[in-house]
Amino acid sequence: MAAPGDRAGSVTFVNKFTVSGDPDAFEKAFARVAEFMTVQPGILGYTLSRDVDDPQRYVNIARWENAPALRAAVTRPGFREHVEELRQLAESSSELYVERQRYLGDGAPAA
Predict the structure, then answer these.
(1) CA atoms within a 13 Å half-sphere pointing along the CA-CB vector of 36
(2) 4, 13, 44, 103: which could join 63 in a potential S-S bond, CB 3.0 to 4.6 Å?
(3) What span, in angstroms and rounded, lies between the C-alpha atoms of 13 and 60?
(4) How far apart are CA 30 and CA 23, in angstroms?
């Protein structure tokens, strides 16, 4: 049985972090994870943003070609080692969304 989103088009992975230590250390650790993830098949891009009012809170938004591409990336050798450092620095919660509408900034909505 297919998981929700497996047959859909691109998906958006949203991961919220609350950092328990130094935000700079968290950002460096996240950069190492991002280096690993950005070479995985199916990733379309990501952003890491820090809360304007609370420097301990971040959100990562990553776009993937589809849900199976993301699921394959998180099962690859080395993934657990990369994220373990993040788990030492922050608590997180994540959700996966199916893209329904998109605006690319070129003046017209995209399908």
Answers:
(1) 17
(2) 44
(3) 8
(4) 10
Instruction: Starting at the earlier edge strand, list the strands of the sheet with 11-19.
Output: 43-50, 57-64, 11-19, 90-98
Beta strand spans in 34-108 (E)? 43-50, 57-64, 90-98, 102-103
pLDDT digits (tens, 9 = 90+) for 19-66: 998 999 999 999 999 999 999 999 999 999 999 999 999 999 999 999
Reported pTM? 0.83
For the chain, helix, strand, coil in percent to 5 are: 30, 35, 35
Under 8 Å CB-to-CB from 28, ≥6 apart: which residues? none
Q: Which two tokens stand for residue 8?
A: 């859909």
**Distance between CA 80 and CA 100 in Å, rounded?**
30
The total number of residues written for the chain in this structure: 111
If DSSP codes are grouped into helix, strand and coil, which group holds residue 3? Answer: coil
